[in-house]
Specification:
Layout: H1 2-9, E1 21-23, H2 33-44, E2 56-60, H3 64-73, E3 77-81, H4 87-93, H5 96-99, H6 102-111, E4 120-123, H7 126-129, H8 136-142, E5 148-150, H9 154-175
Parallel strand pairs: 1-2, 2-3, 3-4, 4-5
Helix pairs in contact: 3-6
Length: 182
């Protein structure tokens, strides 16, 4: 519910309205499944923020058991943080790969319902990739991922997080909530 509370505060006059939302960088959303689904329900409802399913993406590290369930329960988009194209690399970067390797992840992604043309996007963050980053899409295609791959530049990610926190604090101060440090 904290996300929805923050979104209500973003309606400051003169500010550009939010048009897209991504659940990312706040813990594994599919691990907190019930609360994420309730939050999505509020964001999608006409009584809530009235967002379109097409404008919300939930990013996961690859919690395999909930990927198919998520696709069956909602129509919002799914992104998977891949960050490596081999299990050896991915297990070093992402402990989730030790439990669900890339093969298990890909099996779940292939089962992800593709109603209304929804595709799963794979994220490959440059800070993890090192010199091999430039060849990640080719290696991914060789592994038959067959899905969209997004490779956001690392400096953008760092600046976004810093700027987002600063802007969030400014909005809280403007709203007079006194919660700028949270």
């Amino acid at each position: 519910y904290r996300v929805n509370d923050d979104l209500r505060r973003l309606g400051v006059p003169g500010e550009r309205p939010l048009t897209n939302l991504v659940y990312m960088g706040m813990g594994e959303p599919l691990h907190n499944y019930d609360n994420v689904m309730r939050s999505l329900e509020l964001l999608l409802s006409k009584e809530g923020a009235n967002f379109s399913h097409r404008h919300i993406t939930v990013s996961t590290s690859g919690l395999v058991p909930n990927i198919v369930r998520f696709g069956e329960d909602t129509q919002v988009k799914l992104a998977v943080s891949l960050n490596a194209t081999t299990d050896e690399q991915r297990a070093r970067l992402m402990p989730v790969d030790k439990k669900w390797d890339i093969a298990a992840l890909m099996d779940a992604v292939r089962k992800f319902p593709s109603r209304q043309g929804r595709r799963v996007t794979f994220e490959y963050h440059g800070r993890h990739a090192g010199k091999g980053r430039l060849h990640a899409p080719e290696r991914a295609n060789q592994r038959h991922f067959g899905r969209a791959m997004s490779i956001p530049p690392w400096p953008f990610i760092a600046l976004f997080k810093i700027g987002h926190c600063r802007r969030r604090a400014e909005l809280r101060d403007a709203a007079g909530t006194g919660e700028a440090g949270n």
